Amino acid sequence: MTATLKLQFPSDPRFLSLLRGVIATAAEMVGFGAKEVGNLRLVVDEAVSNIIRHSLKNDFNRTIEAELVLGEDGLEVVLRDDGEPAGEDDLRPKEPSPDRPGGLGLHLMHACMDDVRYERLPDDRNQLSLMLHKQQR
Amino acid sequence: MQISKTRTPEGLEIITLEGEIDMHVSPKVRNTLLDVFKKNVKGIVVDLSGVPFMDSSGIATLVEGLRWSKKEGARFVLVGLQENVGHTLKLAKLDSFFEIFPGQKEALASIG
Question: Domains plus CATH for chain B?
Fold first, then answer.
């Protein structure tokens, strides 16, 4: 099965729960087990939270696009927003520490996914691609 | 998110959380912890048995609680972690920094 879903949703944290539900259903349709489904829910939640917090500076009235590519070999989630570009430091996963409670999101994304890629698109939007393959885990 | 608080005769505060903890909800949890720390408690037990999901904003809130408790000289323990939440804490490599008990009974026996 190969299918692509395109979603647009407000950059309001109240929609995170709804998005997690969509991701979980898509991951189950692809055939991931409970652990991977849980990881995908977490990673997409972290990615969107980071977009709202850092790229959109907590502006809850913007729009975020999500593209879910359900494939035979795994699930790819592509997120796009029209916020501020990410700096080099924003993209470097930080080692978790109780002395620095923030910055865990990127660490969790890299810990759970096979590929995490950020691009600044020619139309000045941000694109974050998250890929999890079925065979590699 | 449902939050309830119970004070034991020994001066311990039990905070019971029910629901998913994400960026939308974690400020409410943080405010609850802040209120409790203002009351000069001997220890705080955070019951997470009703929490099926917690993201890094929730973890960051618990880490803040842990730091406040150390500053105030109070115990800060987590109980009843569901498998998914325990897994997230491990992924975040912060599980070893918390005192974690299976349930309230074990935590109260340790603190009280």
Answer: 2-111 (3.30.750.24)
